[in-house]
Amino acid sequence: TVLPRRISTMSPALRPVSRSPVAVPRTAAISLAKTYISYGLGVEANHTLKGVTLPATDRYILAMADIVEDGVLDGQIPNGWYFDCAGASALWAVLAASSIPRSTSYNEDAILRSFSALQPHLRAHLGPSLFAKIQERDTESALLPQLLKVMERGREAEDTSVKLASVDLAFANGETETALRTLDDVIEANEENAPTALIEKIDALIELRQTVPFDQQKLAEAYSKEYRGDALEMQLVRVSSLALASANEVDASFAELAKIAGKLQPVELEATASYLFSSLAANADDVKFLNHSFAANAMGYPLKAEVENAVAKRMIELGFPDKAEYFLNSAAKNEAGRVRRVLRAQAALGLGLPRRAEVELLGLTGVDIEELRGRARMLSDDHRSAQISFVEMGDNEQAAEQAWLGSDWEALQALDTDDWQAEQRLTAAQGEQVVAPKAALAGSHALLQESSGMRTDIEMLLSRHGITDALPAN
After folding, report:
1. Backbone phi and psi for residue 255, each to the nearest 5 degrees, phi listed first
2. Do 412 and 424 meet the contact criterion of CB atoms below 8 Å apart?
3. What's the gap between Cα 297 and its chain centre?
4. DSSP per-residue codes, 146-178
5. Phi and psi dihedrals of 290, rounded to 5?
6. Is 72 helix (H, G, I), strand (E, B) or coil?
7. Which among 444, 410, 405 has a CA at the least distance from the CA of 427?
8. So what's the pLDDT on residue 196?
9. How does pLDDT run across 238-262, given as a tens digit for each residue?
10. 251-268 burial by CB neighbour count: b if 16+ within 10 A, else e?
11. Is the sign of the CA dihedral 182, 187, 188, 192 positive or negative?
12. What separation in angstroms does the CA of 34 have from each of 9, 29, 45, 124, 189?
């Protein structure tokens, strides 16, 4: 998430009462402007130089005034400011640039020396922006921890902007608990950087799949109202939505998202909506799940493939395969792609479309795939193919049922099954046997016993296969 720039403006108490330009000699004006710049008072420096014709060698002062005021250079980078310079121009080149190209080298020693030479308040003022640009260029740069030490050196009180920069480094080094504690410190300080720290804290907890504390849920909601119309408002509403979803406050979280859905960047909208729908599919009761997943605006939210799969899976389980198909109508890659094809096959079976289900399963293997193929073939009355599928997945009982339904007695008898032994005995009969006269009496007793057993098997089969009272007792 791209947050607003964390450049602190100088305290109003440090600013002169009037910003009106004063007519002074050029040399004095340049000297005064440099003094203002050293205190971070860029607007005052620019006003001092109004009407003063600067030599080409001194025009960099205007650029420095822009940078110290709000961290942004409005005009062109002055000649002589290069990332790899040996002097202070290397530092100001980095501060002036929107980013450091990865293909470009920069002079770390010169940057650190020049930054260390600044006044403590100016180091705290410019340091976070410098830190962010170096970190964006190289997250493992050895310059980052050194910059933090220099930012903190010589200050009587800790600066929240510096603390926020240290959070970035702590997260990058895997020191999650330290980073979260530092964010809490900035939030509790309740200074100008508190809303930004809250945004970072909630984003971090969501990434860690943790519930946002109740007090910080409420604080995000309060800040979003307090900063209405500010650049921070949209980000505060976004994290408020995430915080509510983490606590399973489904209705409120979707209401917050709806306020800003049309204003968020596509990447932000996808990440936020995906988290909400993931929580919805995993935690919401059936009614809330269906209400929000069927809502018209929900259909327009971009979602990550695995989240679409999770929503579709629950819809299928609840008996809405037609609605599930909406979330499965786009392509997905890797494992999410395989899961999607399986879900499409399940949805097709739910809609009574066995041929479509088999098409979705083409080229896939596995026990779960064979089970679906078997179900598809059963719906198509293709008992022979269904039997083969169940044999391949090791389910002899289902295979025996398909052999029975398909009148494939030979295949039925070949299966090792516990539940279908009666059917196997009956279908093993080979027709009437010719009994020799001399064995007639001896065979009569055996025949009576066999017919009694067969009668028992037939009664059981008729009952099992849904036919009752077919054989009277007498």
Report:
1. -65, -40
2. yes
3. 19
4. HHHHHHHTT-SS--HHHHHHHHHHHHHTT-HHH
5. -70, -40
6. coil
7. 410
8. 92
9. 999 999 999 999 999 999 999 999 8
10. ebbbebbeebbeebeeeb
11. positive
12. 17, 9, 7, 18, 32
String of DSSP letters for 435-461: PPGGGHHHHHHHHHHHHHHHHHHHHHH
Token code pair at residue 225: 């109202």
Q: Which two tokens stand for residue 100?
A: 């450091």
Residue 51, CB-side half-sphere exposure with 13 Å CA sphere: 9
The CA-based dihedral angle spanning residues 74, 79, 80, 81, taken in that order and rounded to the nearest 10 degrees: 20
- 198: closest CA among 178, 175, 217? 217
Nearest to 236 by CA among 283, 287, 288, 201: 201
Q: How many CB atoms lie within 10 A of CB 158?
A: 14
Phi, psi of 363 (to 5 degrees): 85, -5
> Which residue stretches of 351-395 are H helix?
354-360, 367-379, 383-392
> What is the rounded CA–CA span in Å between residue 96 and residue 81?
9
Q: How far apart are the C-alpha atoms of 260 and 233, rounded to whole Å? A: 10
Structure tokens at 88: 């202070």
The confidence band for 122, taking pLDDT boundaries of 50, 70 and 90, is confident
Token output for 461: 């089969």
Please state, in angstroms and rounded to a whole number, the distance separating the CA atoms of residues 408 and 387: 10
> pLDDT tens digits, residue range 78-95?
888 888 888 888 998 999
In whole angstroms, give the CA distance from residue 71 to residue 74: 10
The per-residue pLDDT for range 391-449, each reduced to its tens digit, is 776 777 777 776 666 666 666 666 767 666 666 676 665 444 444 554 554 455 554 55
What's the rounded Cα separation, in Å, for the pair 39 and 444?
119
- Report the length, in residues, of the chain: 474
- The token duo for 143 is 């310059």
**What DSSP assignment string belongs to 302-332?**
---HHHHHHHHHHHHHTT-HHHHGGGGSS--
Q: Would you tell me the crossing angle of helices 89-96 and 60-70 to the nearest 10 degrees?
A: 60
Q: What angle do CA 285, 325, 384 make, to 5 degrees?
A: 110
**Distance separating alpha carbons of residues 16 and 81, to the nearest angstrom:** 30
Residue 229 tokens, joined: 């119309």
3-state helix, strand, coil in the chain (%, to 5): 65, 0, 35
Residue with tokens 């809609």: 351
* Separate counts of helices (H) and strands (E) for the chain: 25, 0
Q: Is the pTM of this model over 0.90?
A: no
Q: Give the sign of the dihedral formed by CA 136, CA 141, CA 144, CA 147.
A: negative
| 295 torsion bin: left (phi>0), alpha (psi -120 to 50), beta (else) | beta
How does DSSP assign 32-62, residue by residue? Answer: HHHHHHHTT-HHHHHHHTTT----GGGTHHH
